Structure formats: C-alpha cells, structure tokens
C-alpha cells in the first residue's frame, strides 16, 4: 500500500497493491441482496464457542435498536440450531411467492428470518452437511425481501466454521460483535474469533461479556459466578472495546423461553447500541 493511499481502490492505479487485490477479491465473493431489499447496515453477532448466550445478545440488541425508532431485522444463520423465533415468540411460517420470501414480523415489528420459519415442525432436525447449510444462509440474504432495514443483525452459529466464513464472504458486513463469558478458557476462544475477523478483513465493533456476574436479590452484591472476569485484558490485548458486561439474570432467560424478549426493559446494551450507531 502506498504512503499516499486514500483507501479508494477504484481511483488507484497501483495494480500490485496487496490491499487492492484483497479488496477486489472480497467484493467478487459478495452475494447480491434481493432486488427489493433495502438494508443500510449489517451487524454480525459471533461467538467462538456455544453456550455464551449469543442469540440472547442478538435479540436484545435488535430490541434495543428498534426502540430507537429504527427499522430492524434479524437473520438467524444458525441453520441447525435456530433459536431467534423462540425468543420473539414467533410461531407463524414465512410466506413468499415468485418475487421472493418475506420475513415474519415479531409482535413489536422486528423482521425475522430463520430456518424454523420454513420447517413444518420447529423440532424437525436439519440433517444437512456444510455446503447445503452455507447455501441456505446465502438464500436468506439473496431470496428474502428485507424491505426497509436500517440495521440487519445476523445471529451466527458458534465457532469459526462454514457458516461464519459464508457470512463474512457473502454478506457486506459493516461490523461484528463478539460475545463471550468470563471464564479464562474463553480468552483463547475470543482470540480465535478476533483473528478470523481480522484475517477476513471484517471490522470488529467490540466485545460483549455475557453472564458477567449475578446480583444478590437480598443485598445487591455482585457475585462473579464464573470467577474473575478477564474481558478487559482480552479487549486491551486485541485493541477492542468492551461494549457491555451483561449480568446473569433469570428474568431474561424467562423472557427468552416465553418468547417475550421484546418485553425486556434493561439498559445493559445502551453502550453497545451507541457504538454501533457511530
């Protein structure tokens, strides 16, 4: 890259620039959205491992953003383990026609697309190998009509496998949020997710630590259920911001199970939303 680079590859004549080559290759892999879709920004929510509450964070971010008066959609790319419809209490099926597939609106007006909205029974397993799963994820972008979304949140399956690579390569991702928990083991997992994003040139907005602590209902003392948090050190090492430290709250779990996440009234994600809106 030249010292005088203005980051505009289209106006640059340096065909030997490594950054130019990477940028053009990345663009060539992007899938086109449905012609009737209008999506301003796409935010991916990623975790390096399962069980850290990634879908809860995705749903809560979508709800918090929607309360700002913005149009919001959630694309559930966890094909084999979808949980977003359950969180929003959606039981109806997605509909469509010759033009494409329409996401299902939640009670509060958030657009949702998930594999469970296409299955006859939500408990039917999806027994597909990687290529089929990756193809379905692409279709959630190319065949679904996201009519007027200010923000589209992509709930990604845990890990750094096929689906994560498909989303990073096929979607014009504006940034990702990495979800983690306090255990020291997670340090390595976060590093893997961050390194993957950096290798694929995906901007990282920051880290959300879920299940950070629990508040005693009798004395309001904060208890570190999973031990001392290492998230600040992990964030500093990777040059990232800690967007939120979310407590382990049984009420949130109850709302997720009851399909009433839109009733959640906490402000845990305000700082994360502010960072996304910058």
Going by CATH, the architecture would be 3-Layer(aba) Sandwich
Say what the CATH topology is: Rossmann fold
Measured distance between first and last alpha carbons: 27 Å
Helical content band: 25-40%
- Structural category is alpha/beta
Shape: globular
Q: Provide the CATH superfamily.
A: P-loop containing nucleotide triphosphate hydrolases
Instruction: Point out poorly predicted stretches.
Output: none
- Mind summarizing the main beta sheet? 8 strands, mixed
Number of helices, where a helix is a run of at least 4 consecutive DSSP H or I residues: 9
Protein architecture, described:
The chain has 278 residues and is α/β, with parallel strands linked by helices. It has one domain (31-276): P-loop containing nucleotide triphosphate hydrolases (Rossmann fold), CATH 3.40.50. The protein contains nine helices and twelve strands. The chain has helices at 18-29, 54-66, 84-88, 130-142, 162-170, 185-199, 231-238, 250-258, 270-276, and strands spanning 39-46, 72-76, 95-96, 101-102, 104-105, 111-113, 149-155, 175-180, 204-209, 214-215, 222-223, 242-245. Strands 5-6-2-7-1-8-9-12 form an eight-stranded mixed sheet, sandwiched between helices. A two-stranded antiparallel ribbon has the order 3-4. The protein has a two-stranded antiparallel ribbon with strand order 10-11. α4 runs parallel beside α5 (162-170). It is globular. The two termini are 27 Å apart. The model has no long low-confidence stretch (mean pLDDT 89).
């Amino acid at each position: 890259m030249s010292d005088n680079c203005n980051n505009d590859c289209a106006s640059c004549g340096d065909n030997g620039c490594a950054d130019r080559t990477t940028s053009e290759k990345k663009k060539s892999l992007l899938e086109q959205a449905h012609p009737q879709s209008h999506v301003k920004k796409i935010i991916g929510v990623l975790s390096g491992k399962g069980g850290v509450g990634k879908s809860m964070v995705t749903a809560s971010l979508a709800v918090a953003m929607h309360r700002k008066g913005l149009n919001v959609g959630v694309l559930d790319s966890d094909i084999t383990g979808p949980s977003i419809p359950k969180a929003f209490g959606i039981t109806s099926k997605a509909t469509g026609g010759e033009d494409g597939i329409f996401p299902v609106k939640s009670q509060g007006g958030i657009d949702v697309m998930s594999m469970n909205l296409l299955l006859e029974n939500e408990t039917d397993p999806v027994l597909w190998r990687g290529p089929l799963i990756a193809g379905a994820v692409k279709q959630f972008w190319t065949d679904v009509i996201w009519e007027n979304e200010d923000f589209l949140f992509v709930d990604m399956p845990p890990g750094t496998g096929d689906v994560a690579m498909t989303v990073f390569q096929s979607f014009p991702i504006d940034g990702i949020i990495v979800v983690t928990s306090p255990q020291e083991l997670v340090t390595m997992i976060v590093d893997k997710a961050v390194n993957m994003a950096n290798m694929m040139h995906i901007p990282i907005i920051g880290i959300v630590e879920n299940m950070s602590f629990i508040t005693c209902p009798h004395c309001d003392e904060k208890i570190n259920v999973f031990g001392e948090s290492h998230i600040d050190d992990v964030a500093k090492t990777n040059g990232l911001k800690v967007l939120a430290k979310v407590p382990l709250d049984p009420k949130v779990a109850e709302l997720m199970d009851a399909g009433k996440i839109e009733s959640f009234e906490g402000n845990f994600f305000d700082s994360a939303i502010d960072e996304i809106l910058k």
